[in-house]
Amino acid sequence: SNAVSKKLIEKILDKQPEHKKSMLFDALTKSSTLIGMRYTLNSNLRAIETAERSNGLTVDLTGTADYSSSESTSKSLGVTLSYPLDKRSNNNSIQSNNISTKLGRKEFLNTCLGIFRQESDNYNNILYQHERVKLTQEQLDSSKNIDEASKIRFKYGAISATDLQQNHDNYLQSIRNLRQTENTYASTLDSYRVLTNRYLENLPVPLTFDMDLIFQTSPADDRLRSLTVPQIMISSDSFDPENPYKTCQDLMLAKIANM
User: Fold this and answer.
1) What is the 3-state secondary structure (H, E, C) of 77-134?
2) pLDDT tens for residues 87-119?
3) Which end of the chain is more exposed for a tag (fewer CB within 10 A), N or C?
4) Which has the closest alpha carbon to 170: 148, 152, 154, 189?
5) What is the DSSP string of 183-208?
6) 156: helix, strand or coil
7) 174-207: per-residue pLDDT in tens?
8) CA angle 20, 23, 27 (to 5 degrees)
């Protein structure tokens, strides 16, 4: 609605830095993509730690034994010992997991920076469209004044009928431009709300016992339960929207809550 859109833009314009920081913070720390990649990195690191404890040594024992009523029997037993003799060995899990971890970190940073750019563009696009509406309104006011003045000048023979018609057409075009700009602006606000609300917030809701078993919940102050979502744990105080690379590095090293 217009009231919601007006309230949203007032909030953005009144506290631009704080609002942008809050929006980026939620978008990055609650991103399912980043959380999944962070979880994979944790798994790789645990695999490396496990492999280092065993020095990369793995033992597989396989065997079969078949007996029948006849005197003949079939027995087999096999033992496979795998030990990486050097870093070039194909079964060196430590080496392969180290490579996977390095590639995973690079992918995490690239994805994080991509989300950073996307969300920043979404935010800045609202400000840009808002300024376009203001500018188009000023152009409309100017063309309206010219149109009204042209009518007076034409009455006294100061301009031709062609000029009068052209100035009036310009005024009508300015009206159409303003309507188009306003529609684009309204669409931008709607898209922004969809984008920024796609993450489930920690909303207090009354849940039955059965629902408590289905959803992961946590106690709330008002004796209700709150739906919780996985979130990368990073302090909002240290979150710097003007330093994307450092922020993404901090997110990559942070723990995941509510998993």
Assistant:
1) EEEEEECCCCCCCCCCHHHHHHHHHHHHHHHHHHHHHHHHHHHHHHHHHHHHHHHHHH
2) 555 556 677 778 888 888 999 999 999 988 888
3) N
4) 148
5) HHHHHHHHHHHHHHTSSPP--EE---
6) coil
7) 999 999 998 898 888 777 766 665 544 444 445 5
8) 135
